[in-house]
Amino acid sequence: MKLSTLALAATLAAGSLFTATAALAQAKVQFFPSLTGRTGPVAPNATPFANGYADYMKLVNARGGINGVQTLVEECETAYATDRGVECYERLKGKHGGATVFQPLSTGITFALTEKIPNDKIPMITSGYGRSDSQDGGVFKWNFPLIGHYWVAGDTVLQHIAKKEGGWDKLKGKKIAVVYHDSPFGKELLPIIQERQKMHGFEVQLLPVPAPGVEQKAIWLQVRQQRPDFVIMQTWGVMTATALKEAIATGYPREKMFGTWWSGAEPDLKDVGAAAKGYSAVMMQHGAEPQAAVVKEILDKVHAKGQGTGPKDEVGQVLYMRGVVGAMLAVEGVRAAQERFGKGKVMTGEQARWGYENLDLTQAKLDALGFKGVMRPVSTSCFNHMGSAWARVHTWDGAKFTWASDWLQADEQLIKPMVKASAEKYAAEKKLTRRAPADCQS
């Protein structure tokens, strides 16, 4: 595709992530739209994600692009509102030669876009959020919950609690409260908790919190009255810090509180500090990674050149790294697609979709990209759009997070039948036909 000087100026004004010199020298660009939450109740958490996503795309360009194809990012602000997310999608999907892949960073937006992307032939990566049943690529051809979804989070956090207690049998008769965002995001965790409840005989206390979650006194009054043995939190943005402050106020032990991965990052704890010591959260593989090779390379090739998207001191923090990982997965799917459809060519959304379905990120490949010690291998297929079910737990020591578990792996024998049953239900409701094996080759 050709970029006219006028179009180039407009693109740069919109905040794209490559320099004018690079753009003029390199006409081939791969467009990665970025749906951001830099305003609203999730801003402290969504902003580092957007910055990490942008910085990694700049690093890819500094490395020479995707086999010579430069990345182009344009942001659109959703403020974590579903209607605004859909508007952003419609505005960006056809720009700059067409969107490669969307990462909405919102379960509500994911649910809405799941209806649209098959017609537009644009894939969607929803690492760690969205529809857990979209792991089933036989029904959800365009959705990719790469490296984890909420049933992985719920299963691994329960595994961790059971291990601390001395085994699954020790949970029988115990009470586990679930404090969750009263939205599709919050409710998406519940099926795996309820499935494990049936298997192991613990009691579940459901405590939905209305968005944005700044008023939780009634919730924590119930916690104080019921005294559950553990609290699992499926919270996001200001809701997490509020929950921790209310737990402290009511005297609930932080050592018995466990967040899922959107409830365990530095912005959640910085205003609580030492009082939150002992609080843990399950992580979608990485945690804070200041020593990772990819972080050092971003500091050297992006920030040291004055091109960093956000503050230098957040580089390597938990949510920044999640943005970096999201960008890496987006890029590596395109690289995989180029192996089939033409090295050094711009991939369409449809071609990129094939790449995400045929990812084979070995440990050697991840290490070479700078993710040694950060991530485990990821391998997708036609019917497995997740590719990896690894997680770890980290614990707040009063000032920072430190690892508190070995690698955990979600129980796929438990999760796969849940995924298939839910996907089949969705297919029946929407009158969709499961993909034929021949479709897996195209």
From TrEMBL:
CDD domains the UniProt entry points to: PBP1_ABC_ligand_binding-like (cd06334)
Top-level taxonomic group: Bacteria
Keywords noted in UniProt: Signal
Stretches assigned to the Leucine-binding protein domain: 35-397
Stretch forming the signal peptide: 1-25
SUPFAM superfamilies named in the record: Periplasmic binding protein-like I (SSF53822)
Family: Belongs to the leucine-binding protein family.
The name this protein goes by in its record: ABC transporter permease
Lineage, broadest ranks: Bacteria, Pseudomonadati, Pseudomonadota, Betaproteobacteria, Burkholderiales
